[in-house]
Amino acid sequence: MCPIAKSWTARVPRTLTSAEHPGTAVEWDGLLYEVREAEPQADGGMRYALAPWEERHVVRRAERYDALTEEIRAGDRRDRRRDVARWRLSILFAPVLGLLPGETQKKMERDFGAPAIAMTIASALPLFLVGFLGIFGALARLARAGDVLPVWIAPPAPIAVYLFIESALRLGSAVAAGDPMGILLAELIAAFLAKPAETRKTPPAGPDLEERCDRELFGVLEPVLALLPRGEQDVLVRRFGFDAVRRGRATAAVLLALAVLNTVLSVSAFGSRDSVAAGIFWSLPALYLAVEQIVRWRAFARGTPAGSVLGILVRPFARPLLG
């Protein structure tokens, strides 16, 4: 009797409508046996009944039964149990693990099936809401409505704007582009640590090191490179295989959502003549961005990349990739 069930199957006898199928072939001490019976036990084990293999049957696959093979099987079972435990923990701690760099989340998904996209969403969505509430609270104070929300829900305006924009980009990367993404600080630290020690101490001295550094920079900036003009995106496509259309859709979705939200908040802040003027002033760039994203979406529908006026903010960081 085996304390843990194996993948062995018992013989299926012949019936009036089906042919006989031999059980699993087991090699034991140089001899070949057939699994005739496999009976589950009350303690979770399995009782196997073996008989010498009949030569009239064809051996399609034989299982070995010895100390080494059983040790390997036991190790595989331990690995599976460990992976299941890690998978459950990844779901439980998704809001925290989703802050890790995107490549780390992908590795976790490859190693034990962690839901990388879900982890990014679970970590970005609460920060997105906190940023939104912070912006709403700041606009309420501008409209002389006082502190309508407590500080622990609505952080100061600079922090709120940062959290809102970063989380919106992460949500767009996960939902629209299907690519997990951590917080900016984690992504920058991961890119720095990925460099060999010698490249951190001295400038790159050869084309291989330069290419490696460029690829690391590309990995960090990839979520926003679709804001660059079309010609510069074509360079990135040739050099790094940049998926310009998929990334463009993600940035367009995020910018369109931000433009609509800005308009809604501006209208909600109308409380005096000054706030009306300010609301109209801030609605103009939001309206431009909204129209721009609609135009970009039409280009994406044709399978061509399209940049944004915000690409001017990305170009100084991306200049090494365009040379």
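The record above closes out task 2.4. Task 2.5 opens with a second protein, given below.
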Amino acid sequence: MDTITAVTATESTQDQPSKVLIVEDEQALRLLYSEILKTAGFQTVLAASGHEALDALTVHHGDDELAVIVSDISMPGMDGMQLLRAVRERGLHTPMIVVTGNPSIDSAARAVEYGAMRYLVKPVVHTELIDLVTRAVRLHRIAVLKQQAATHLGITAVEAGDRIGLENRLLRGIDALWMAYQPIVNPVRREIFAFEALVRTREVSIPHPGVLFSIAERLGCVPQVGRIIREHIAKLLAEKQPEADIFINLHPHDLLEDDLYSSDSLLAPFACQIVLEITERAALDQIADIPERMHTLRRLGFRIAIDDLGAGYSGLNHFALLSPDIVKLDRLLFTGIDQDPVKQKIVGAISSLCKEMGALTVAEGIESAADAATAQKLGCDLLQGYFFARPGPAFPEVKWMGRHLHSVDRRVNSRSLNQSAQR
């Protein structure tokens, strides 16, 4: 036994040798790979097709789980790429090494993209196969330990690293997607000014919207997700015809979508009722012609809001580029604001400057009567937060001094609110 084999046999043995699934339709090669790996101290399970491999994965689970899959790509019925996708769809973290006698750059790229650990070309070098399987066993052990740690810590969603796993999570997330709405209120008039549309999904592996957009970014699917969200909102506006305005969050990538600027878009018929929110955290310097884009959106009837002001790093740049109609101050500015003179000074100054620039201010994250009273005293025009209502299906009730407002009495627009403030 050579040095590599000796080390492999030692490392692959804990309570029992690690099991390797060999998937190869040619019997001679299937037996050859098995003998090579057995000599190195591994146990092997043999399958002559992709379907047999899936059956083997079903049989071997839990403590008897297969640690590595070595599979040919070209096989009748279910080929190696289809098997790889099926394995990832099951959410298995089993490393997979794919083998082919007809290599190409495209097939290699696809194999790695969809989660294959490595790509081997026939005829397979014995020592290379042993070395790769040894590394794959180590990776499998790390994955199992990470899963155990996540379970122990109560973490139910573990980030999938391969493309097919991410694709399936995103599809499940979209299938279970729904929109929650949170009121934005005018505390002086005691009326609902608008509802902010917030993305939610019932997919358990996506605990919050940040995970959904993180996956979409990694897959290059943010524009598609944005269109789906806008479809949900447009359908609701057509069916329920709320009197209040609707705030919609835009990802920076949404600003590159031609459909957003079209008079035939799904949102265009409701443009005068919609405020488009662009977060201060957005990297707008990556997008050309922002002022022209904003002009086009306003010409269609949309209004523009800067979101999370105070949390980002380029507020002046955003003001110059967007010329916002509405400014939403970050919720962190209002946490304990009634006891924080520095926060009070900052919020008061921003509110005053926004008024001079003709923009309304929204205080986000209002969770107490003290927060609400302080935000009003400092000049915030509109308030939003759990103190009034939590996000929920269209449309949540609002709590006013112990009683509930069951419907929107009438729509309040920016102009009437400014007139009220001047009076």
